[in-house]
Amino acid sequence: MRILFVHPNYRSGGAEIAGTWPPAWVAYLTGHLRQAGFDDIHFIDAMTDNVSDEALAERMAEMRPDIVGVTAITPSIYRAEDVLRIARDTVPGAVRVLGGVHATFMFRQVLSEAPWVDVIVRGEGEEVCTDLFQTIAAGRWPEDRSRIKGLAYHDGNEIVATPAASTVKDLSKIKPDWAILDWEKYIYIPLGTRVAIPNLARGCPFTCSFCSQWKFWRDYRVREPKDVVDEIEDLVTNHGVGFFILADEEPTINRKKFVAFCEELIARGLPDKVKWGINTRVTDIYRDRELLTFYRKAGLVHVSLGTEAAAQMKLDLFNKETKVDENKTAIRLLREADILVEAQFIVGLDNETPETLEETYRMAWDWQPDLANWSMYTPWPFTPLFQELRDQVEVHDFSKYNFVTPIMKPAAMERGELLDGVMKNYRRFYMRKALFHYPWRGTGFRRRYLLGCLYAFMKAGFARTFYDLGKAGYWGPQTKNSVDFHFDETRQIADAQLADWEAAADRAARATERRDALRAQMKDRAELRACGGGDLQMEER
To answer: How confident is the model at residue 312 (pLDDT cuts 50, 70, 90)?
Structure first.
């Protein structure tokens, strides 16, 4: 049975300005499928190769797969649906499979707008896909689809979701097939070297209101550090990787495992061959302040900190559990350990003003991270914060939910003004860094890395790909009132998805009512006992 995976051709001018990123999802899926005996597996990276729909159709026709699989985050969902539409028209006998975080939670929306999708894999894909593909190979599709956990599909006019599958409990079975990727394509521009995105842990114990990771992976699990370092050694030795970023939301949560991971890297001499970066929380930097130089010895050179917002009210809204003054200290600690630090700011909520944007710039310059990034608040449609703000969301064109397009319109600003304010912050921050910091501060690796980052920014800026500025028609402050984000206003939330949201809201409301009633009942009982109405009486003395 021939399997074809396709990475959809979607670009936004966001993270891809730093390089071409390898689609790790296909390596993890393929590795698991190969263990199950599937060996005729092919991959087309339509994004990296900029494959047109016409060329993709030709390659599908030549390959004649039995299964076409694709994944998508929210902004790439329409391009993923297009891949399966092309498969329907080109290889109609192939089973068309869609996975990823967006389809997992928005399966009613996806199946309503793209009825040619045969089946959606919900949640972690390795075990569900293996079960699904074995069923197809055995000729039991679609008859046995209802017995497979973790699927969604059309059954006549009805959208059916089978019970959720268990998360992958034995992470030692996760053995990605990195060889399925053409590694010469995946280059990290700041260092001019091949880049990988391996995975140390899955899930997150925190519940930031704007994030979906904790919902998608559900329970938090950490792989054995030795297994992960085996992967990295393979990436370095056999695929020429010189830089990797751990895909985890926060790999430092389990300090014991993270330290063991660093120790394993050092024991194998890998820090001399590969450098790496992570995303993490300010609180973990505080906790590990005595270990930062050890992390640097293990090859950690870049930390992206979720500072998120300059205003404490935004941190509280996001459930970040951090304080503004802690951000500055964490940045200082990292720089003292010779680890480059990137500060992340989320902007563009309803309460954003020119003054709050200016405040984020002043704080960024005061804190002195090596890099700063301003991301537009993007209300993932399956997060708690989206449900709270749903009545304020005017744009349902998910292709623009990419952290660079202002989906939300602040009450006191137009979207073009918001974009202009963000660009003003970028211009001032990096111009001052370029003139007074990067060329003069530090030598060797640090200087080379920062100048490489500056080159990546300049390259994307001159090409007008940064923040999709070329498509939006932004050329500076004089154009802020004429930018066009090209929202597809025909895109709306499907009736089936709205009904599902309302049902979920009703269930949540009833659960809240039951909890409140139980608390009130327990309080009444406690007061009754306090007044002498309990079963036990005081003994006479």
So the answer is: very low
Residues 402-426: pLDDT tens digits? 999 999 999 999 999 999 999 999 9
Three-class secondary structure of residue 385 per DSSP: helix
Who's near 483: CB < 8 A, 6+ residues apart?
A: 415, 416, 419, 472, 473, 474
Terminal CA-CA length for the chain: 86
Query: What are φ and ψ of residue 201, in 5° steps?
Result: -135, 165
Consecutive H or E run containing 453:
helix 444-462
| Residue in this structure with the two tokens 């797969």, named with its chain if needed | 65
Distance CA 149, CA 128 (A): 7
- DSSP conformational letter for 19: B
Quote the distance between the C-alpha of residue 90 and its chain's center.
31
Q: Distance (Å, rounded) from C-alpha 350 to C-alpha 440?
A: 40
Q: Which long-range contacts (CB under 8 A, 24 or more apart) does 500-506 make?
A: 500/108, 501/387, 505/387
The two beta strands, 41-45 and 3-7, are: parallel
Q: What is the DSSP string of 235-272?
A: HHHHH-EEEEE--SS-TTSSHHHHHHHHHHHHHTTGGG
Q: In b/e form, how buried is each residue of 236-262, taking b as 16+ CB within 10 angstroms?
A: beebebbbbbbbbbbbbbbeebbbbbb
| Per-residue pLDDT at 539 | 39
Give the number of other CB atoms < 10 A from CB of residue 181.
24
Helix (H) or strand (E) holding 513: helix 495-528
Residue 346: closest CA among 370, 380, 311: 311
Q: How many CA atoms lie within 13 A of 525 on its CB side?
A: 7
Q: Which residue has the tokens 């049902």?
A: 503
Q: What angle do CA 435, 437, 438 make, to 5 degrees?
A: 90
Q: How far apart are CA 317 and CA 214, in angstroms?
A: 17
Write out 514-533 in H/E/C secondary structure. Answer: HHHHHHHHHHHHHHHHHHHH
Paired with 68 in beta bridges are 4, 96
